[in-house]
User: Fold these one by one.
Assistant:
Number 1:
Amino acid sequence: MIVVMHKDSSEAELQHVVDRVQEMGLETVVLRGTNRTVIAAIGDKRNVDKESLLAAPGVENVVPILAPYKIASRDAKPESTEVPIDSTTLGGQRVGVIAGPCTVEDRTMLLETAHAVKEAGAVALRGGAYKPRTNPYDFQGLGEQGLEYLAEAAEQTGLSVVTEVLGCEHVPVVAKYADVLQIGTRNAQNFQLLSAVGEQRKPVLLKRGMSAKLDEFLLAAEYILSRGNHQVILCERGIRTFEDHTRNTLSLSAVPELKSRTHLPVIADPSHGTGRRHLVNAMSRAAVAAGADGLLIEVHPDPERAVTDGAQSLNCQEFEALMKELKTVAKAIGREM
Ligand code: PEP
Ligand code: MN
């Protein structure tokens, strides 16, 4: 259930309604938009006396939220949420591109990539320091050393850093160096990890589980939101299907569908979504045209020699060319890059 406050209601009226809802035995989450503030009331609605809430000063309406994801739902907060990244936001007018290598391999390649993606207009640098690998004998990432290289690259370029957190024990160290904590597809239903990143206050980039339906994806986001962290970016990164001409099937219809169900920013990852370099440009353009608020793109100075995901990585020149194409698409749909 949500209690919609009048646009000119006062803080005291808001607090009074919060107290009333809590007296009825429900939890409250205050969602502040630019025009309206609403209170999401979560719990057993049989205890709710709707009429008495409607009578409280400052209350405009009391309406049910039908979706199971109470805080993520656009019913709870009709205005889009903008998550700050770099000097801009994701979820607003501007389409933001996060780019960088799959893995932080060494200092030199990371700095070279960081400067190239910055030059091309990316808003943030990506790169895994802790890598989720299917095979335990494969390279697992540089760990904290990789985070230090990312921080150095951020300092040199001014880019924000997005990097994956693999386990609850790594949340503090990743949060120390990164601007945005990424939860990968393999951890998308690790409820303890989702809660742990919900407890800290850096933005979270949540990837869709490779077999997650949209409701499951949004409920994963709800774990983070329900712990008080409201800065969540959703990322469609492809799902497992029978089709094998690509590594995953990038479900682009998920982008507008998610945008209609939730106020959270939605981005797409055409690199993992296709696994094939020659498909990345077309799917990036398509994702922007479909309304994605941003993209996550793997870029490597020498993809042929990349330790991980070389087949889906663009080189720095290809990335620069793609950014130019994307500006045209963004402009055509009335957005900026
Ligand atoms: C990544 O972006 O580095 C990654 C491992 O992606 P995913 O979790 O989508 O496979
Ligand atoms: Mn990768």
Number 2:
Amino acid sequence: MNIVLIGMMGSGKSTIGKIIAQTLAWDFYDVDKWIEKERKKTIAEIFSQEGEATFRALESKIIKELAQKNNSVISPGGGAPCFKENWDALKKNGTIIWLKASPQKLLENVKKKPLSLRPLLTGKTSSLETISMLLNKREIFYQKADWVVETDALSLEQTSEKIVNFVKSIK
Ligand code: S3P
């Protein structure tokens, strides 16, 4: 079985994923990192030089590969769960957990890194507006997760602990 952490950018998927994997002595796979490795470009470069459609195709390819793993924590980018082929691949051997956070909390976290690393937040509208709009569109997909953790009031460690306990309870 794998644990798949889904949620918007800034929901803490990578940080929490690493903590959980370390605690369970499982492997951790960050889908964006594998895309960057395969393309030898940053995600921002892929978006600006090759466009979002190319990025999404690469994302699906890597997800299908990583979904074959076992005893792994997988963290796909925020948009990945909205594509049926990605969802189906991840669901096959995965328990999907949504890290649910408010747009305000997501923005607070996203601001910890340069916004230039976030190709979807470089447009004209404010980041808060874009995050709220994307979250509205994506909630319908995220809601299909096997388990939802509301993270606004929790530290990264508390969220990780909750998930580790959940994994132990279903193993
Ligand atoms: C995206 C989120 C990013 C990255 C890409 C697209 C999205 O990943 O995959 O910029 O569509 O929300 P994170 O969710 O890890 O930031």
